[in-house]
Amino acid sequence: MPKSVLTVLLACALVVFASADAMAHKMKVFAAVEGDEIVGYAYFSPGGRVQRGQIAATTKDGRQLAAPTLDNDGNFRFLITERADILITVSGGDGHQAQTLIRAENLPGGSPSPAPSPNQSETARNAPSIANDDVLVRTLELAVERQIRPLREQLDAYQEKIWMHDVLGGLGIIAGIAGLGWGLSRGRKNPSNQENAR
Amino acid sequence: MAHILDGVLAAPLLVTGGTLGAAGVLYGLKKLSADRIPETGLMAAAFFVASLVHFPIGPASVHLILNGLVGIVLGWAAAPAILIALFLQAILFGFGGLTVLGVNLVNMALPALLCGGFFHLAAKGGNRRTIVIAAGLAGALGVLLTCLMVVMSLGLSGYPFWSTMLLVIPPHAPVMAIEAAVTASCVGFLLRVKPEMLGLEIRRSCPNPS
Asked: So what's the pLDDT on residue A67?
């Protein structure tokens, strides 16, 4: 192959690798529990937020729980009505689709019921402290959710990052298959050439 | 989005796509001669990388397809080349599903074949200018045909036909323009340095100096 062709190809390769930020995209959806609601957003990874799409929140066996709408920033929120695994599906209408699952154990559970007490006054004394504990637990849950949310968002986005080593690996596999195919086909041809030469 | 994901299309469509795709690949391999293998690998690599370059167009996000150029250079060998590229994109980046591999292959390779055929018809016996223009048209046509086939695939799986068409085709208009330019310039370049890669007989306007 002429040197000029190789040079051009090399230049193209460099351009592509330099523009690594413009790499391919996938639609993703991130969702987190916030108090009584599920709050989240749909986005392209890499890229911006999804502005147009349909969201469905269903149980694992397909029962519809909610159908919130996306705002201009791709955000959505809906109330948690059931303590079950919630599957959130976002479709972009052009074939893009993304899903995420919120497990039931991550949903805010009901507070543990106080042990039945025979003594009325004891119950009266215990009631305020149990109520306080309940509020404290809920507040703590909310605070922790808020704190780890950026971390979860980062992990979610990280999963789909296109790594350069994957691109190089793919190119290497293609080159390898081509080389193998070419080498094997030449091997098959050579014996007959040698026969004819004799 | 030209690469369709798992779970979007109906099962009968997946089977049809898989069968057609397999048939196309087998035929492409049969017609592939050993000396064309390096070019096939090169085009597969180009296709693999091209689909990674994306542009956000308004609310949508589109990417280069480059199947026009692949069809022009490889002809029937475009099928195995695109198959390998799509397969690697699916397993390395999750770009496009594996069950839909057949359908995605047909959606991209069939236009490649058609555009390659169109190019060779339009460029036959023409001068350099005709060839380059034909290449540009083939490049744009490749993208348009792929979009139409994607819309058809989605439509046959229950997506509303007209709104899907509006969602898929207009955002790809810039891609068509870019690919027309890229294909035209690539073919123009190959005409100068390695015209046999295009399988064309070139009508020279002046006698060969050598």
From this structure: 84
Residue A64 region by backbone torsions, left for phi larger than 0, else alpha for psi between -120 and 50, else beta: beta
Identify the residue among A7, A94, A186 best suited for mutation to test binding to B, counting B beta carbons within 10 A and taking the highest: A94
Across the interface, of A13, A24, A171, the residue whose CB is closest to B95 is A24
Distance CA A100, CA B103 (A): 25
CA A123 – CA A33 distance, rounded (Å): 33
CA-nearest of B177, B180, B176, B201 to B191 is B201
pLDDT, one tens digit per residue, over A86-104 is 888 888 766 678 888 888 8
Nearest to A12 by CA among A171, A177, A178: A171
Strands (E), B45-177: 54-57, 60-63
Interface predicted TM-score of the whole assembly (ipTM), two decimals: 0.82
pLDDT tens per residue across span A28-63: 888 888 878 888 888 887 667 888 788 888 888 888
Q: Is the pLDDT of residue B135 over 60?
A: yes
The angle at the Cα of A157, spanning A62 to A74, to the nearest 5 degrees, equals 60
Cα of B168 to nearest chain A Cα, Å: 6
Contact A166 B34 (CB under 8 A): no
Q: Are A50 and A92 in contact (CB under 8 A)?
A: yes
Nearest CB among A16, A94, A185 relative to B53 is that of A16
Q: B70 with B39: CB under 8 angstroms?
A: no
Alpha-carbon distance of B71 to B77, in angstroms, equals 8
pTM of the model: 0.72
Q: Which residue has the tokens 């690594």?
A: A20
